[in-house]
Amino acid sequence: MNQRVHFAASKTEDAQAALALMRERYGETPIDEAEVIVALGGDGFMLQTLHRHHARALPVYGMKLGSVGFLMNQYRPDELADRVARAVPTMLRPLVMDVQTESGSSVTALAFNEVSLLRQTKQAAHVRVSLNGATKLEELVCDGILVSTPAGSTAYNLSAHGPILPLGTNVLAMTPISPFRPRRWRGAILPATTEVKFEILDPYKRPVSATADSYEVRDIVEVTVRESCERTVSLLFDPEHNLEDRILNEQFEI
């Protein structure tokens, strides 16, 4: 291969078999010397790969060997060098989640899909919502609320009846999860430059957790969410499997 490729695979039987085949057929470059990562698995494994290697700023080319493959290309073991060379890059910018907990600790994490808040007990969460320092909802009573990137808008956000966001629109989706009050509020589409702050009202009686993709922080009192200005990741897609087209087509699925 012309490119120096490092392979990564989920632990499923199919992905591990594909990993062995790829290494035998194409060889492999150590991650410290690689130019591109080829990820074998589903969307969950793609997120793990992005989190594990985002500091290296390497483009990632995924092939679907899992149950969900929205961020993956079709798995075909042949002509890998040509496919990677022809792939179209899509730049993703993650969210930064800054959390303050009841114990006084501070936690920062990245999210490529979404930042979500969820109640920890049977008690509904009571959340104050502010945008760029201005309070927009004094008290949202709900099971939770999330902020999604365009790439993540077809994941948890869509399951919560949030909007699908085309890539390149520089917007984020804010979507409540089972909102009780205000009854008619169903979320908002925000400029990507918006800084969102969630304040937990009565956190001791109504504890809430915050999750950046799969990284959870429990017993929170305040969360701020903003788009990262420093970090980006590049996903590579076959020309016939463009992520923007997939997001567009998803809006017409019934």
Any overview of this molecule?
The protein is elongated and about 60 Å long. 38% of the residues are buried. It has 254 residues and is an alpha+beta fold. Helices cover 17% and strands 39% of the residues. It has two domains: 5-93 and 232-250, 3-Layer(aba) Sandwich (Rossmann fold), CATH 3.40.50; 95-227, Probable inorganic polyphosphate/atp-NAD kinase, domain 2 (Tumour Suppressor Smad4), CATH 2.60.200.30. The chain has a six-stranded antiparallel sheet, with no helix packed on it. Strands 12-11-10-7-14-15 form a six-stranded antiparallel sheet, with no helix packed on it. Strands 1-2-3-17-4 form a five-stranded mixed sheet, sandwiched between helices. The mean pLDDT is 92.
Features:
6-stranded antiparallel sheet; 5 helices; 17 strands; Tumour Suppressor Smad4; Rossmann fold; alpha+beta; 254 residues
Strand order of the largest sheet: 6-5-16-13-8-9
| Proportion in β-strands | 35-45%
- Main structural class: alpha+beta
What do we call the CATH topology of the largest domain? Tumour Suppressor Smad4
Number of strands: 17
Work out the helix count: 5
Q: What general outline do the C-alpha atoms trace?
A: elongated
What's the CATH superfamily of the largest domain, by name? Probable inorganic polyphosphate/atp-NAD kinase, domain 2
What is the CATH first-level class name of the largest domain? Answer: Mainly Beta
CATH architecture of the largest domain: Sandwich
Can I get a quick summary?
With 254 residues, this protein is of the alpha+beta class. 17% of the residues lie in helices and 39% in strands. β2, α2 (43-53) and β3 form a beta-alpha-beta unit.
